[in-house]
Structures are given as C-alpha cells and as structure tokens.
Amino acid sequence: MARSQGTGGRGVAARLKEFLERFESLAVRGVLLGIFVTGMVAEFVKPVGDALQGQTFVGGALLSLVGYVLYDALKDMASAQRAPALTRIPSSSLPEYVREAFSARKVDICFIGYTGETLKEAIYERLNHLLDGDGQARDVSIRMLVPDFGRAMSLPSRLGPAGEPVDDPGFRNRMAERCQKYDDQLHEKIEEFDRVQGVRVTCEYRLYDGVPRDKICIFNESLVMHGLYDLSATLPWRGERYYDPKGYQTELSVWSLRGGTVPSAEAVAMWTKHFNDLWKLGSTPPWRRQ
User: Fold this and answer.
1) Which one-letter DSSP state was computed for residue 162?
2) Is the confidence at residue 62, as pLDDT, over 60?
3) CB 45: neighbour CB atoms within 10 A?
4) Which of 240, 244, 270, 239 is nearest to 257 (CA)?
5) Integer CA distances (angstroms), 268 to 90, 131, 140, 146, in order
6) Would you give the DSSP letter of residue 246?
7) What is the rounded (10 degree) CA torsion for 173, 174, 178, 179?
8) Among 47-61, 67-81, 110-124, 207-221, which is the least confidently predicted range?
C-alpha cells in the first residue's frame, strides 16, 4: 500500500532527525576533545599561546576534558528533564517515545494491553539500530503483559445473533499465536546481542487474567501512557464478525516525571505500582513453559 505524501514527509523528517542525532555524540565529543588539546598546546607552546592571545588555558582545557568524560551522564540528565509536548497522543506516535527511551543508557519498557504489536515493532527497530552501534543504551529490559488467551473470553469473541459475545477458541488461539510470534521475534533479535560487548538486553512475556481493556506503556519508570481500547470495534474473519480491540487507534494520556507536577508524579507512581503488581500475578505463557 502506497504511503500518503504527508506520511512520507514525516518519515523523511524522522529519518533526518535520527541521522543528525546519530552523529551528535561524536561531534560534541570531537569539539570538547579539540578544545582540550588546543588549550594544553596553547599553555605549553608559547607561539601558539601568543597567537591565541590568552594568558592561561589550563582551566578551560580541564573543563572541556571533564565535559568529554561526563558527556553521557549530562545527556541522560538533559533527556530526563525534557517534558513531552502533548498530554494526549495517538498510539501511532509510540515509536517516537520508544526512540527517546533508548537514548538513555538504562532502558526499561513495560506494557499492558492486547498484543502489543505497535510497541513490539518500534522496539524491534531500535534493537536493530543498537546492534549497528547507534545508541548509548547498555541495559535494556522489556516486559510485556498480554491476556491469557487460553481461557474463555468475552473479548476477543465472535458476535452472536443479537450482538452478544460468543467465546471462540479458534480466534483466541489466533491471538495467542500472534503474541508468541512477537515474543519469538524479539528473542531471536536479542540473541544477536551475544556478540556485542557491554550491552545487556532482556525480554519477557507474561499473561494476565481478564479482557484487554487498558493499554498502558511505561518508559524508563518516568513516562506513563494510558488509554482505553474501543471495546465495540469489530473485524471480519472466516465469514463471521469478531469483537477485536483496535489498539493502533487507541489514544493515550501521558504523565511524566519530567513535567515536574505533583499529579504527574502521583500518576506515574500509581501506574508503575499497578504494572508491577499485575506482573507478579502474571503467568508464564505456554510457549515458554517448555
């Protein structure tokens, strides 16, 4: 399917931004190192010092060296202070936030929802970039909570004659196989990090009881997104219609510690605790029990 012109324009802009950020660290480090070398040479080589018309260069040179050494830490701090521009976003914007989460050295991504396809695709892309040496992430943790499709469910389900939900094991198995596929793809990608020194990546799926009502994403324990699936959405399958939440169309409310407000901090703490509590209650999926 051909992309629209608007979508293509956003794609070009995103790739340009990514290209510039990829070489930002190298450029800044080069400048800082250049200042240090120039300062030390000017301090101890008189003709150079005279040409630069300076009295002492040791202090500036040492400061630039400190900046060079602490650049990663300073970048993490700056990223942590960057507040999101919106308080409500479409799920289609998730890749942008995944990319920003991977700009930290320690990455922690948590998900509660339906299948997590949108988030999985964005994570998979960032792992590819990390394998190519693009990014400073050194410890990546991914935790995905999806429904237990092995149980009878009212959602997803087949529409009965009067629109009532009718449990359908075949459709549930279809969703379970989809989650297994995503889990396998991420694990296969993570195995490629065995050859990468100094980078640790883990991923785990667990199952929760109940229907997929909430879509929750938590990034680096500081940014939370929450939305409600459209429980009335349906799709055709094998000549029938099925209740099937449209996760890609779900709008998400955003709370961030970077916003600096008490309500945001309380919301982040509440949703993070909620996820951790559900995680403890979650079960290992059957495809991982072997």
Assistant:
1) T
2) no
3) 11
4) 270
5) 19, 30, 20, 21
6) -
7) -30
8) 67-81
**Cα–Cα–Cα angle for 3, 182, 120, nearest 5°?**
55
CB–CB of 67/32 below 8 Å?
Answer: yes
254 pLDDT above the threshold of 60? yes
Q: How far apart, in whole angstroms, are the C-alpha atoms of residue 12 and residue 130?
A: 20
Global pTM reads: 0.72
């324990």: which residue's tokens? Answer: 221
Peptide bond into 90 cis (omega under 30): no
CA distance 290 to 284: 10
In terms of C-beta density within 10 A (0-12 exposed, 13-18 middle, 19 or more buried), how is residue 111 classed? buried
Question: Average pLDDT for residues 215-243, to the nearest whole number?
Answer: 96
**Helix, strand, coil % in the chain, rounded to nearest 5:** 50, 20, 25
pLDDT at 149: 97
pLDDT at 49 over 70: no
